[in-house]
């Protein structure tokens, strides 16, 4: 039986990844600062530990895992990443985790390691036109990310590749583009746009309004969690291609359109109140030419289908919270 280690196992993507690995027959150890808030872990073993601590990393790498998935990071949505208030923590925490995992993973003799990078590494100047952003993999340089989160991700990409060159560590790198779905953060300030908008629509009364940061004409693409994991597993199963590669949807929409889709799903008519808020780049979309070339595959689930599943799950969370407060 193959053994896998999932770092960041208490998070949204990590929790779903563990379920997929278990369905594929892996023995899985999960590690995180906390358990998943929304579901029981499917891991065979779950360790509460801080990956910023060297001893924790040494202890969890006590056997030569067939596959390691390094998803752990200090992250959140635009309200967290672009406020500027968390830059030092974001860079220090995430860089420390990656420095520890790649160093001690190499020493422990792990066979293959996946690193989750981000579309935030792409140059800001290529994403000023909301209708024509450039996010092909080779466009990452000259580097000019729009956030410290993006700079740390780019640094860590280079570090993993350096360990491959210098120490023959078998690495795989994907740049995620706005992954969403059920069992993800949906309130509290770290949630991303799909979850935040689904929550706002679910809470709004018919004929009311929801708040949108900026003019709502900024564009993004959003990838449903199941498609993300399919891309990750295809990358890990590759014998020669290591990335970096985009894993994202190329169904680009404005944030206003994203809100309209959520309203359609909810069957509500609401107005949009545009307010000031952290925005990030004006446009971003996944360029899927490379993943199609390498694997003959690219994501295909329509955005509306993923939003429907996410909206229904968030609506259930709100109902459960209300029942708890009433009881």
Feature tags:
327 residues, alpha/beta, Rossmann fold, UDP-galactose 4-epimerase, domain 1, seven-stranded parallel β-sheet, two-stranded parallel ribbon, 16% strand
Q: Unreliable runs, pLDDT <50, ≥5 residues?
A: none
* Average pLDDT number: 94
CATH architecture name of the largest domain: 3-Layer(aba) Sandwich
Order of helices and strands: EHEEHEHHEHEEHEEEHEEHEHH
Biggest sheet details: 7 strands, parallel
Helix content percent band: 40-55%
How many angstroms separate the termini? 46 Å
| Radius of gyration using CA atoms only | 19 Å
The CATH first-level class of the largest domain comes to: Alpha Beta
Structural class: alpha/beta
The number of distinct helices, counting runs of at least 4 residues, comes to 10
Number of domains: 2
CATH topology of the largest domain: Rossmann fold
Count of strand segments: 13
Strand order of the largest sheet: 3-2-1-4-5-6-11
Label the overall shape.
globular
Q: What proportion strand?
A: 15-25%
In short:
By secondary structure, this protein is of the alpha/beta class.
List the helices and strands and how they pair.
Blueprint (H helix, E strand, L loop, with lengths): L2 E5 L4 H12 L3 E6 L12 E4 L5 H7 L6 E4 L7 H4 L5 H22 L4 E6 L29 H20 L3 E6 L2 E2 L12 H11 L5 E5 L5 E2 L2 E2 H13 L7 E3 L5 E2 H12 L4 E5 L13 H7 L7 H24 L1
Helix pairs in contact: 4-5, 6-8, 6-10, 8-10
